[in-house]
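Write out this protein's structure.
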Amino acid sequence: MISGTTRLIAHLGYPTESFKAPLIYNPYFEEQNIDAVVVPMGCKREDYPDFLKLIFRLSNIHGALITMPHKITTMGLLDEISTNARVAGSCNAVKLDSYGRLIGDMFDGEGFVRGLKRKGQMISGAKALMIGAGGVGSAIAASLAGAGLAHLALYDDNNAALEGLKARLNSYYPSTEVATGSNDPAGFDIVINATPLGMNHNDPLPVDINRLSPETFVGEVVMKEEITAFLAAARERGCRYQVGTDMLFEQIPAYLEFFGFPTTTAEHLRKVARI
């Protein structure tokens, strides 16, 4: 039930038809008797800079979830930005602090890393290969480095995106060694597909699966299918793995903490979600 005391969390993006967050957060809020609601708000690109500022002038606004196409634009509209958001070059959560300043963070990578940790995969001191240096890949790279990853190899056809991410990682996380130029998965503890490869059945695999060790942990970001062709091939080789939707469910507890709500587990959110 929405009342005059309900705190609003705006889910900002365009178009809104594919938004899943309200179907996860709101059942959880209802179950826990938390007087808050996530509301999808379709805001076109040209209207967004003005709208973000206006919506945070509402007396009952609590925060905002930011999705496409606004994650990058948001970076220039905030008063304070987390290190993860700076490395990612984008932001997917905004709140007001006690001084009325807009504070932004990025949780895509945090969700991915929390998933790995919960599955027992060591990150500190490990070596990882990530295919894809776009928005999601950059967020994952930031969180991996923040968790103490020793070595990160990056591969992307977009050289500008690749070099930009490498430079930001070197600036904010100098203790993580960053290499570029190869998608050979041999010798890595973790291999991640952070590209859209796998959205279509005829997509090529992101790496040579024959070079993948059975001891390597494999991660996926594609959510269209739970077991993509890449994960199926990795599973066939005996690899442990993480499906794309794990990143979504694992990041929501981090969002809840950011917004100051009681947190929970990804497993519990999966049970109560109405997707």
